[in-house]
Design brief:
By secondary structure, the protein is an alpha/beta fold. It has one domain: Rossmann fold, CATH 3.40.50.1240. The protein has 9 helices and 8 strands. The strands form 2 sheets. It has a 6-stranded mixed beta sheet. A two-stranded antiparallel sheet has the order 3-4. Helix 2 runs parallel beside helix 4 and helix 6 crosses helix 7. The longest helix has 16 residues. The chain starts with 14 loop residues before the first strand and ends with a helix.
Length: 280
């Protein structure tokens, strides 16, 4: 294929589909619309979703069901902050929780002092909280997480095993993570995804983290493609993308490829075979 056409070709087993989601509207987002200084208030520490945010979640949940995205997702990765875990549970979780179901709830009723009902972990993919996809660390209280021991009773079916410390040791009250640092963290997160066996992964994260991570990609594409990759996310926006492992970071073997050459014997290319026939 002529490389000048601008297309790229990659083996299927070196690709993953990522369903990227920014969390729904939080109370800090609402406050920041009229007063950006409000984001510095501890009133919005680890902010919960607003009632409008929960409506956004319900709309996105309907969309992923109607488009059959839900049935394809093998893993849900979420930032370990209240608003992202609420969004992840509401969009990709099971239905209403029933007390006599053996599996634990994905989210208990009233998480973060809201009136939302419990959400079941039955019939949905596994959920994992990952620190790497958190929002900018430092300064803004809305971006500071609670202790994992506080989250676990609220989100019993989310896997927090990759979180190394119970308390938030990354957030500092007077030091904001530098842009190059969050970009490096985004790169590390993408590399971590290649260590996973799942091929269809939903990721629920934050506007700033997604902006800096996606800035790593698309700069060698047509401007319209680059802009589609790098444009800012609105609250509860979902964007599905395919990412290719060009450096063999992952170790997955192909599952759909077939070696051919059966039965055993010489496998002469057709053009060479035609030449041999002309000689005789």
């Amino acid at each position: 294929m002529d490389g000048s056409v601008g297309s790229s070709l990659y083996p299927l087993h070196r690709c993953k589909t990522l369903h990227l989601v920014r969390h729904a509207q939080g109370f800090h987002n609402l406050a920041g619309l009229t007063d950006e200084q409000a984001l510095f208030s501890y009133e919005y520490f680890d902010a919960s979703l607003t009632p409008l945010g929960w409506k956004q979640v319900e709309n996105l949940r309907k969309h992923v069901a109607e488009t059959e995205i839900f049935s394809k997702i093998e893993l849900v990765v979420t930032s370990p902050l209240l608003r992202t875990m609420q969004t992840a549970a509401g969009v990709f979780g099971g239905g209403d929780y029933i007390d006599d179901v053996a599996s634990p709830p994905l989210m208990v009723a009233g998480s973060g002092n809201n009136s939302h009902a419990s959400i079941s972990s039955s019939g949905c993919p596994p959920f994992m909280a990952v620190e790497l996809c958190r929002e900018h660390w430092g300064v803004l209280p809305c971006d500071k997480r609670r202790s994992i021991s506080e989250y676990q009773p609220i989100f019993p079916a989310i896997d927090f095993s990759l979180t190394e410390t119970d308390e938030d040791t990354s957030w500092q009250p007077d030091v904001r993570e530098k842009e190059e640092e969050i970009t490096a963290r985004g790169r590390a997160f993408i590399n971590w995804l290649w260590t996973r066996n799942e091929n269809q992964i939903a990721i629920v994260s934050h506007g700033g983290f997604l902006r800096h991570t996606l800035a790593l990609f698309g700069n060698d594409c047509h401007p319209s493609i680059r802009d589609a990759i790098q444009k800012d996310f609105t609250n509860c926006e979902l964007r599905s993308m395919v990412i290719a492992d060009r450096s063999a970071i992952g170790t997955d073997l192909p599952t759909t490829d077939f070696p051919g050459g059966i039965p055993r014997g010489p496998d002469i290319p057709s053009d060479r075979e035609d030449l041999e026939n002309e000689k005789h």
